[in-house]
Design goal:
The protein has helices spanning about 5-20, 25-35, 40-45, 45-65, 65-70, 75-90, 95-105, 110-135, 145-165, 170-190, 195-210. By secondary structure, it is an all-alpha fold. Helix 1 (about 5-20) crosses helix 4 (about 45-65) and helix 7 (about 95-105) crosses helix 9.
């Protein structure tokens, strides 16, 4: 990416962070980037295309920055600990606020919706890879919807940015509930082979009834 395009991408993110999605315009982006606003239309054909590009570029960078931490995760509890730390850092840096604003804008803009969805899938794919590795061989792995679980975990941490603002205690309880799930998985993993076979059979039967 050229220096000018990178400045425009950075300026778009800065404008969203400062003004919110409703206050973003060619003028506010150009001011944040320190360039002539005509360059937005030269390089990206408009504000919507620039916001879409900025959303994807920023998310790729953030996912890459945490790749080693995800790779080092050895339990579901560790995954949630990484998620908590990631959430706190991203919130402190204003990145979660930007994502929340882009999600809001995506409700009215198909191009931004597609880009935001693609950006979220980058996080989901990373979490899904970890879950496949962690749950391999677990009694309920045979019936677990791991792609769905990855989306649920990702959505939980993204949604906390909005939820914390109105109910911080509730957000803490939501995280505690995820921690309890992690403890349950560890308990199951520690069961002996006979108990695990019995549990696997009961889960399979319950799934067939459902």
């Amino acid at each position: 990416m050229s220096d000018t395009k990178q400045r425009l991408v950075d300026g778009a993110l800065a404008a969203v962070r400062e003004h919110g999605i409703a206050g973003v315009s060619a003028r506010t982006i150009a001011a944040a980037a320190g360039v002539n606003q005509a360059l937005i239309f030269y390089h990206f054909r408009g504000v919507d295309e620039l916001l879409a590009a900025a959303c994807l570029a920023a998310t790729r960078a953030r996912v890459a920055a945490y790749a080693d931490e995800f790779a080092d995760v050895r339990s579901l509890r560790e995954l949630l600990e990484v998620g908590r730390a990631l959430h706190e850092r991203e919130r402190a840096e204003g990145n979660l606020s930007v994502l929340a604003q882009l999600l809001a804008g995506a409700q009215r803009d198909e191009r931004l919706a597609a880009a935001t969805g693609a950006a979220l899938r980058l996080w989901v794919d990373e979490v899904e890879r970890v879950l496949h590795r962690l749950l391999d061989g677990a009694p309920f792995a045979e019936i677990a919807d791991i792609p769905g679980l990855a989306r649920a975990v990702s959505a939980a941490f993204i949604g906390l940015e909005l939820y914390e603002g109105i109910d911080a205690a509730g957000a803490d309880r939501a995280l505690a509930a995820l921690d309890q799930l992690a403890v349950l998985v560890e308990i199951v993993d520690d069961l002996g082979p006979v108990s695990r076979r019995a549990l696997r059979t009961r889960i399979s039967r319950a799934a067939r009834r459902g």
